[in-house]
Specification:
17% helix, alpha+beta, 184 residues
Length: 184
């Protein structure tokens, strides 16, 4: 019962985030901005430049901990490696599972058929549709997990979400000042 409630709350948060209107300035787009000297290497399907991971490092390690600085939009972002492909994710401690955009799922070698898309939850704007999958490998710096439950959201998700199906594999997570600290 509690597990269903937690899953439902995560899906609701995913739906609210997915369907919340955003402005281009100062929002999620800032998380995708290249470093001053970085050059875009390809479009990510949303009209935003995709930047090489080395040019857009979002975290640093210190004594076995991964530290994510708070973005100026108030969120925490991380470069996450999924099945060998690295992409920018929003860290969402309220999401039950990792949620992938269609582009990030394809970059990770995942395929699906439209017939596999089904209602996975509902939010204030209505039903949320996706494809449940299991990711072979997910990693953030030294934190790695295998067989991670996730969903692919083929439409409407602007950035992939790093949810509890990965985060609960990390020993400790805390927020201190403007930093999220993962690990002990």
């Amino acid at each position: 019962m509690i597990e269903r409630a937690v899953f439902g709350a995560g899906i609701l948060l995913l739906a609210v985030y997915t369907f919340t209107p955003r402005e281009d300035a100062g929002g999620v787009a800032d998380a995708d901005a290249p470093a001053e000297t970085g050059k875009p290497e390809a479009a990510n399907g949303w009209g935003k430049p995709k930047v090489a991971a080395a040019q857009r490092k979002t975290s640093y390690t210190s004594g076995g901990q991964t530290i994510l600085p708070r973005n100026r939009d108030g969120h925490f972002y991380a470069d996450i490696r999924v099945n060998g492909s690295t992409n920018r994710f929003l860290v969402d401690t309220g999401a039950s599972v990792v949620a992938l955009t269609a582009g990030d799922a394809q970059a990770a070698g995942l395929t699906w058929d439209d017939s596999e898309v089904r209602e996975i939850g509902s939010g204030a704007s209505g039903a949320v549709y996706g494809v449940p999958v299991v990711l072979d490998e997910v990693s953030l710096d030294g934190h790695e997990a295998r067989a991670v439950p996730a969903v692919i959201i083929p439409e409407g998700l602007e950035i992939s979400l790093l949810g509890q199906s990965f985060l609960n594999k990390i020993d400790a997570i805390s927020v201190r000042n403007d930093e999220m600290v993962l690990g002990e």
